Amino acid sequence: MRVVLCGYYGMGNGGDEALLAALLQMLPPPVTPVVLSGNPAATTRDHGVAAYPRKSLAGLWAAFKGAEGFIWGGGSLMQDATSALNPLYYGGLMRWAQLRGLKTIAWAQGIGPLQRAWTRRLAYTTYHQCTGVTVRDRASAAQAANWGVRAWLSPDPVWALSSMPVPGLADFPAPRVAVSLRSHPWLTPDRLANFGEALANFQTATGTSILLVPFQASKDLAIAEAIAPQLPGPHQILSLTDPRQLKGVFRGVEMAIAMRLHALIMAAAEGCRCFALSYDPKVTYLAEDLAMPGWEMAPKADLAVPSDFALQAWPDSVAAMTQAWLQHYANGLPASPDQIQSRVDRALIHQEMLQRFLAAD
Questions:
Q1: I need a surface site. Which of 92, 242, 262, 343 has the fewest CB within 10 A?
Q2: DSSP E strands: which ranges in 24-150?
Q3: Which among 158, 150, 143 is positioned nearest to 112, based on CA atoms?
């Protein structure tokens, strides 16, 4: 069975590449995957699968030729917070696949935010017409239920992604703390300056080595490069393209401070203490699920999660930031082995549902 996989692939984002790796790991053996990618050559090189340009009509036509299935491959694809073009692109491809009679799967989805009436209508229609739907958080499950869409709720598939050690990382001095930030309007220059100063104070107090881990070079690397000169102790910018190695970074890390959802998932799955910097409800919901400390980056007027879910507000002072991290470093706990195994086991429901949805009629 030829199946087209559609997501934010080939765009240099470690989290989305991890979702693709997890999806490929979970596909039933009879499936021949074909990936729509922003960089088909890199996708073929890194994942060993056929890939076509995601925004080329010729590429789309070639990918869909002979296809029997179409999968939205994980993540918050149907959301218009970053751009109204997202639901237009992903929803348009899903509707095209449905009109062509393909088996269509919305897999490991984070639904929303959907701020426009037309994007909500498009999402409603596409999800209703899917062969099957799985979601990765309670808020998405609630939205699907509100729409009358049957959806299976399981943790993000990256919980179950296998990890690999990073060559040479064992030589980097321990104890280690990983930091993963991304560009965002709420990460203002003043906040970034305070963050860098607080991280430097934290490093001095703890004697830790700092790993700056950009998940998407185009959005994260400049931030890592801005922080690095402020750090008084051992530090390294670690840019990796293999999602299994990216997850493996956190094997030997004592604590992770991260904005990126998949940095927090990978760190938690590898038994690392986590401190969340939430720019998006998906990060807040993960923090709530694991009782993970952290801060909301959104101004109160822009807060998109209910108050009972919200984390503490971003601190105004460098001293408060440093103290919060020192407290968590000294007294915080990682997810327990039982918590981790439970989420890994439940994440495999995404695999079971793929087998069910793609089974022959």
A1: 92
A2: 32-37, 50-53, 69-75, 103-109, 132-135
A3: 143
What is the per-residue pLDDT for 84?
Answer: 84
Query: Among 4, 23, 356, 248, which residue's Cα sits nearest to residue 158?
Result: 23
Task: For residue 309, give the DSSP letter.
Answer: T
Q: Is 109 exposed, middle or buried (0-12, 13-18, 19+ CB in 10 A)?
A: buried
The pLDDT, as a whole number, for residue 233 is: 97
- Residue-wise pLDDT tens digits, 163-173: 999 999 999 99
Position 134 pLDDT exceeds 90: yes
Count of C-beta atoms within a 10 Å radius of residue 287: 24
In the structure encoding, which two tokens stand for residue 321, read together?
């930031």
Q: Provide the pLDDT for residue 140.
A: 93
Nearest to 9 by CA among 19, 60, 266, 105: 19
Q: How many CB atoms lie within 10 A of CB 187?
A: 18
Note the pLDDT of residue 82: 80
The terminus-to-terminus CA distance of the chain in angstroms comes to 12
Is residue 189 classed exposed, middle or buried when 0-12, 13-18 and 19+ CB atoms within 10 A define those classes?
exposed
- Strand segments, DSSP code E, in 46-136 are 50-53, 69-75, 103-109, 132-135
> For the chain, where are the E strands, in sequence order?
2-6, 32-37, 50-53, 69-75, 103-109, 132-135, 152-153, 176-180, 209-212, 235-237, 255-258, 273-278, 294-296, 312-313
